Amino acid sequence: MINLQSDEEEDHVENSLGVEAALYMLKFYKREISPLLPNSCRYVPTCSEYSMEAYKKYGVVKGTVLTAWRLCRCNPLGGSGFDPPRWFDEDPPFQEE
């Protein structure tokens, strides 16, 4: 069977009501709550941007799992650096040599 979808279309899940609700709450957080807190995210993109990308790319269920996993890792004892959203069995976006 031939896949007629482009790579860009494959990367984006159709925005369901759940995804739209999650994105609305994240936008509210970024606009109203985040400015009141100190900058503390150790990753790029920030945790809220990561979450938005995860919801758009994977939908509400996988997006929620990835967001929870990211929030657990974003602490002083966790890692830091470039960390785009990707599902657990996906390869990293680049290979360091």
Automatic annotation (TrEMBL):
InterPro entries xrefs: Membr_insert_effic_factor_YidD (IPR002696)
NCBIfam families from the UniProt entry: membrane protein insertion efficiency factor YidD
Protein name, entry field: Membrane protein insertion efficiency factor
Organism: Populus deltoides (Eastern poplar)
